[in-house]
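Next comes one such specimen:
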Amino acid sequence: MIEIKDRDLERELQFQASRSGGAGGQNVNKVATKVELRFHVESSELLTDEEKTRIQEKLANRITNDGYLQVVCQEERSQLQNKELCISRFYELLRQALTQQKKRKASKPTKASVKRRLEGKKKQSDKKANRGYRADL
């Protein structure tokens, strides 16, 4: 698989800046530092159909009804830093969505682990058996 960053997806990204919320005083009130990255998954020319369906399945909670994958950043005080942060998060999301997990191979427990488990159960059983009241016979 070709590295996702090498495909130059940045030309298909749309950015929108707005005023950031929260504390920050005059800077927050004047400067549009919050950046929203939008990427339309279906109309992308750089992704294969298989990759598009995989992204739509894995990132369904981040995709709007219009089909846009959204990433919002407002941690930094400058618009440029927030834009770079959005881009890096976007590529990380795509990398995670397109990475296939390995199939789990079933294996049997070792004899030693079975023995340890059974000894632990026997010890617990003895502990509980000794708790009860015993009348002298």
